[in-house]
Amino acid sequence: MRYPTASKDELTAPKSQLRVVCVDVQNELGLYHVGDFDTLDAAHRAAMQRAGVGSPVYIYNDIGDIIVRLGSWH
């Protein structure tokens, strides 16, 4: 499984929040920040709207760890 190539700062949510990051596999620079959320439920809903085949989505916590992976690279 591949992971987004981004700095730790780009992938780390603000304190007590969760960050949703999507990858556009068709675009080399296709990593984009969807938003920061206060709850896992809100982050998961936002991630599910964007996840799919060719659209992997990751939810990171406030220390930069992946806590949820959705979608796929192909």
Measured as a percent range, the helix fraction is: 10-25%
Radius of gyration: 11 Å
Spans where pLDDT lies below 50 across 5 or more residues:
none
Count, helices: 2
Largest sheet: 4 strands, antiparallel
**Fraction of residues in β-strands:** 25-35%
Average pLDDT, rounded to a whole number, is 88
Overall geometric form: globular
**Beta-strand segment tally:** 4
Domain module count? 1
Strand order, main sheet: write it out.
Answer: 2-1-3-4
How far apart the termini lie comes to 11 Å
Structural class by helix and strand composition: alpha+beta
SSE order, as H and E? HEEHEE
Task: Describe the fold and architecture.
By secondary structure, the chain is of the alpha+beta class. It has one domain (14-70). The protein is built from two helices and four strands, in the order H-E-E-H-E-E. It has helices spanning 8-11, 40-50; strands spanning 18-23, 31-37, 57-60, 66-70. A hairpin with a 7-residue loop joins strand 1 and strand 2 (31-37). The longest helix has 11 residues, at 40-50.
State the gist of this model.
The chain has two helices and four strands. It is of the alpha+beta class and 74 residues long.
Topology:
Elements: H1 8-11, E1 18-23, E2 31-37, H2 40-50, E3 57-60, E4 66-70
Antiparallel strand pairs: 1-2, 1-3, 3-4
